[in-house]
């Protein structure tokens, strides 16, 4: 048997191809390990934020069978909005996604949530939102109260499905707003007050900010002024939303599109709102 003479290592195989560099191989293993650690960390951060939970199926719950958890109140928050408004701009409403805001608000102990778009589409099709709520496999739907208005005023009444809860416990009152509830409603109220003063049913000296506040709240079902309004996209516009009642409202962005809104972004906005300080002056 013929033995080949020993040749020094030159970094190449006998066929002339370069041999793998040990340092590069070790660096590749290190990068792979770091990427794996980062992916595991990101998966752990995607878990829900809250200790108590309300169960709901995933985003496309009509098509999937797995369930996810919705948030319940964050004990570390110093405050939560009493009245939340979800404000839509030019994009069309997605009723199933809007229904999730009701569940999130219920879990976060927000007492009032309203939906507004400048075309009045959501208000005209409010039954679509109610249908999505009825079809969602969520616990505690009996604590959702639909705000019904008749004759330009009235209070909150429970729709037949779901019914208003009889026992104790927090509820969320859901309302639908349109441009006629804003500027047009303010004009109608001003005319009504003017007619009352002309008929001497009301004295001019009695007309005050407190009177306007009480009349406007009565027309909207005794719902308090919005504390927080969530909008989508880069443009912050009120689109004619309740010009009188939003003088102290915080406007915060929630993603670029309604379809991309998530529980995490909703919680982030609640944390930002809790840190807001209002200085009204003297």
Automatic annotation (TrEMBL):
<dbReference type="GO" id="GO:0045547">
    <property type="term" value="F:ditrans,polycis-polyprenyl diphosphate synthase [(2E,6E)-farnesyl diphosphate specific] activity"/>
</dbReference>
<keyword id="KW-0812">Transmembrane</keyword>
<keyword id="KW-0472">Membrane</keyword>
<comment type="pathway">
    <text>Protein modification; protein glycosylation.</text>
</comment>
<keyword id="KW-0460">Magnesium</keyword>
<dbReference type="InterPro" id="IPR038887">
    <property type="entry name" value="Nus1/NgBR"/>
</dbReference>
<dbReference type="InterPro" id="IPR036424">
    <property type="entry name" value="UPP_synth-like_sf"/>
</dbReference>
<protein>
    <recommendedName>
        <fullName>ditrans,polycis-polyprenyl diphosphate synthase [(2E,6E)-farnesyldiphosphate specific]</fullName>
        <ecNumber>2.5.1.87</ecNumber>
    </recommendedName>
</protein>
<keyword id="KW-1133">Transmembrane helix</keyword>
<dbReference type="GO" id="GO:0005789">
    <property type="term" value="C:endoplasmic reticulum membrane"/>
</dbReference>
<comment type="similarity">
    <text>Belongs to the UPP synthase family.</text>
</comment>
<keyword id="KW-0808">Transferase</keyword>
<keyword id="KW-0256">Endoplasmic reticulum</keyword>
<dbReference type="GO" id="GO:1904423">
    <property type="term" value="C:dehydrodolichyl diphosphate synthase complex"/>
</dbReference>
